[in-house]
Amino acid sequence: MARYVFKFGGTSVGDAKRIKSVAEKVKQAHSEGHEIIVVVSAMSGETNRLTALAGGLLVKPNPREMDVLLSTGEQVTIALLSMALGALGCPAESFTGGQVEILTDSVHSKARIKDIGVAAIQNCLKSGKVAVVAGFQGVNEQGHITTLGRGGSDTTAVALAAKLKASECYIYTDVDGVYTTDPRVEPTARKMDSITFEEMLEMASLGSKVLQIRAVEFAGKYNVPLRVLSTFSEGNGTLITYEDDGMERALISGIAFNRDEAKLTINGVPDLPGVASKIVGPIAANNIEIDMIIQNIADDETTDFTFTVHRNDYHKAVALLEEIKTSLSAKKVSGDDTIVKVSLVGVGMRSHSGIASKMFDVLASEGINIKMISTSEIKISVVIDEKHLEAAVRALHKSFELAGRPVL
Ligand code: ASP
Ligand code: MG
Description:
The structure is a single chain. The protein is an alpha/beta fold. It has twelve helices and 18 strands. The chain has two domains: about 5-175, Carbamate kinase; about 255-400, VC0802-like (2-Layer Sandwich). It has helices spanning about 15-30, 45-55, 65-85, 95-100, 120-125, 155-165, 195-205, 215-220, 275-285, 315-330, 355-365, 390-400; strands at about 5-10, 35-40, 90-95, 100-105, 115, 130-135, 135-140, 145, 170-175, 195, 225-230, 240, 255-270, 290-295, 300-310, 330-345, 370-375, 380-385. The protein starts with a strand and ends in a 9-residue tail after the last helix.
């Protein structure tokens, strides 16, 4: 007998028929003698619908009440799924975040889990029932309802798996695993059998939106093996786990990209201590996240400073940079919001040289100009013109031999 956490996303529980087939899947695992904890999202579209309801009423809804509202989505699915399981003769009990005692901090709409009570679920499992838990929600110390941020049910599932020492956490979704790159851009993209937590974090933060990033961080920290797989088709999905020394790994695991980028440059800033902080500080203070940063070597006592932000923040960042330009007596502000970031990701990079030069060769042979470069131990990212995105991803996918065998 093993203990598993199964998480089903919004599309997997999108209507009554789908809830029934989820119930059948859960019943099957339960009848094999396993202890099953199921975490569910709200039915697809429901969280957006509720958000729009509040939005139609007022521009800035009260954050506490917003969480009370949004948490109802998941409360609907736990009840429906538990009923469906009962109807199949599989005993089940539903739990809200508060009933489980998923204790969080008080940051409404993006709360962090501090601790999880085990008694309620342990009792449920002990009595032979399936525990059906609402994802995405918790309570703070005062007992007020909180939510964990969009996609937060993934984090609920991983946190429960860690706390209850489950053997594995299965994330059932509408894709059959994690791919070497987006198959819509490169049709030969291959589903990976496994990927390390570190690689998955890079892939996820770069825009492969299969899992909430926080869930992957959590899983890595507590070493919870995670499996992403499809609710709608057979297959083992992709296992996300620690690097296994015996594993024969490809040098490069995947190519991630992000279309939501923009870059800004401030030229001719004095090359003095404190200048970087005077540029980045006001940007960060306005809740604009900065990604890549490049500062050039100064040749005439001034230097140029370039960084990237999310495209939605571009105009706000330009305006802030204009103010900074005046206060620093810098020369010029310029920017470009038609750029993208493309990254090669792979733990194999740690022990191999020459990956960057090969990447640059490939892009050069496609006639693609690189505007910015940044690297980490397991990632090389370049910023290029958005019009070259598809060509870059395809050429890199081919040159690093990431393709699967053609499907006959
Ligand atoms: N229902 C929430 C959302 O749509 C949480 C989740 O599905 O994970 O973001
Ligand atoms: Mg999701």
